[in-house]
Design a protein that fits this description.
The protein has 425 residues and is mainly alpha-helical. Bound molecules: fe (ii) ion (FE2).
């Protein structure tokens, strides 16, 4: 049912002071649809709500229902919000609306009447904005770095109850299979890590809910920021569509150290920093940056690693299709037939005393040519190593993960019933 003639408040002069009109005729492109139940009646709204009617073909009439919430009793506002099916805001007030969502995210995500998909959309839109701001921050000062972390912590703290609930994985399922984008990847990795920790809390030996919540927040912050160091790597390398050369591969690997260094002065908890630094370490010691193995790798870093690879495999890239969750987990849990060959190859390469990249400064032409040839040969060798690694990745990755954690990850995901994993367990 729609309420008629109830624009609150319509107080004469106020209209003249507002940039918003009482009525618009528009093709719809100037307005954004929002769900009235996502409006918190207890919060002062500084944006207007509109109703929409079809005026003529291709044109709508948008009529103001509520100018703002300053002079309407809360009870009356609740009544009205319940009577409206769909409301609209003018895009000129989108900034005000975004601020409202930032401050009321917990209200929206924990609202029983809002659909999980709408909650997911709200969370991803806001998270994308906050993560984009973080990636765009220049990190020139300690204050910039601290601000980035505070914004992420505020967002995660409000979203924690929602993202740590198995039911919310329906939202993740909807985000799977799309093009890889760093910000959505970061959101999903943080989200999956939080859900996993909540579903496997016995691994952490905590006694209180608040201790568990602290761990989940630290892990999710790490998930959101784990790839922030990629901002220091040349764009053409990050966005390269073809196979990476060895140098490019080494550059990409440096993002873990860059991430840690950018966040060094933010006083992020130790566990978040460790997760960010070690999220590419493999269980058998073949990962980077330190080649840690087994118990040397912190627990949350191992979980973040699993979530990271799962999301990377299920995302579409210009050079590869998206795997289904079933296919991705099968690769992750599979033994690799080329493992011994690769280990031998890695041992030969690491036993090679030559430095891969050298500065050629001497004038000796013959020596220059010889050094260039050596460098080319090393590049070829390195390229083979990169290709072998890619081959290895496709054929089975069980050596990369803690077996018990990976099994738990599969079980956790399977609980949501949003993923078809039958036959895998
Ligand atoms: Fe990474």
């Amino acid at each position: 049912m729609r309420a008629e003639n109830n624009c609150y408040p319509v107080w004469g002069e106020a209209w003249d002071q507002m940039e918003i009109q009482a009525e618009y005729f528009d093709d719809g492109s100037s307005f954004i649809a929002i769900d009235p139940v996502s409006i918190n009646p207890g919060y002062l709204l500084d944006f207007s709500l509109f109703d929409r009617y079809l005026h003529k073909k291709g044109q709508y009439r948008f009529r103001c229902l509520l100018l703002d919430s300053r002079s309407i009793p809360k009870e009356r506002l609740m009544e009205l919000l319940r009577s409206w099916d769909q409301v609209y805001i003018h895009k000129n007030q989108n900034q005000n609306y975004t601020e409202y969502v930032k401050n009321n995210l917990e209200f929206i995500l924990n609202h029983g009447e809002i659909d999980v998909r709408k909650k997911t959309q709200t969370l991803t839109t806001l998270s994308t904005q906050v993560i984009n701001e973080s990636f765009a921050a220049n990190f020139a000062s300690k204050e910039d770095c601290i601000q980035v972390v505070q914004n992420i912590e505020k967002l995660i703290s409000q979203a924690m109850e929602f993202i740590s609930d198995i039911e919310s994985l329906k939202g993740i399922a909807d985000l799977i299979g799309h093009d890889y984008q760093t910000h959505t990847h970061s959101i999903k990795v943080g989200w999956l890590t939080a859900t996993f920790i909540n579903a496997n809390k016995e691994l952490f030996g905590v006694k209180t809910k608040s201790q568990l919540r602290d761990i989940m927040i630290q892990a999710t912050v790490a998930g959101f920021l784990h790839d922030i160091g990629t901002i220091k790597i040349p764009r053409h390398v990050i966005n390269k569509e073809g196979k990476l050369s060895n140098i490019e591969y080494v550059l990409i690997q440096s993002h873990t150290a860059y991430s840690t260094s950018l966040l060094f002065e933010t006083q992020l908890p130790r566990s978040s920093m460790q997760t960010i630094l070690y999220h590419h370490e493999n269980e058998d010691g073949s990962g980077y940056p330190c080649g840690l193995s087994g118990d040397q790798i912190p627990l949350i870093a191992k979980i973040c690693h699993i979530a990271d690879v799962f999301d990377a495999l299920t995302s579409k890239r210009p050079y590869k299709p998206a795997r289904t969750p079933y296919e991705a987990l099968k690769i992750m849990a599979g033994e690799n037939p080329y493992l011994e060959i690769l280990r031998q190859f890695e041992a030969e390469v690491s036993g090679n005393p030559k430095v891969p990249v050298v500065a050629i400064v001497r004038d000796d032409y013959e020596a220059k040519l010889r050094r260039l040839r050596e460098r080319e040969m090393l590049e070829e060798e390195a390229q083979k190593r990169v290709e072998a690694r890619n081959k290895l990745r496709d054929k089975g990755m069980s050596h990369c993960f803690d077996k018990d954690l990976l099994r738990r990850f599969i079980l956790t995901i399977n609980k949501s019933e949003s993923f078809d994993l039958s036959g895998l367990l």
